[in-house]
Amino acid sequence: MFDSECKLLETGVKDTLLRYLLQNKLISPHQRGFLSRRSTTTQLLECCLDWNVALNAYNNIDIIYLDFPKAFDSIVHTKLIAKLACFGINDELLNSFCNF
Known about the structure:
Structural class: mainly alpha
Shape: elongated
């Protein structure tokens, strides 16, 4: 019972935070992997389409691959909290994040 209640709370917080960020234009519409129906897989498909169009038009293309291993494991949490505070996230929610 406790796990399902935590998941429900987590979903509510995520949905509310995402709605706030989008309404206040604090998150880029080009963001991938966090917005619904905008996964990294769809990003790769869009890139492949762009590359095919360019190649079919005999245009040159440059592709750079970057690998950011464990990107979210290396986040400095104090900086994340500070950034969320700058975005106007209320103190009660920030305190919950800090305590978590």
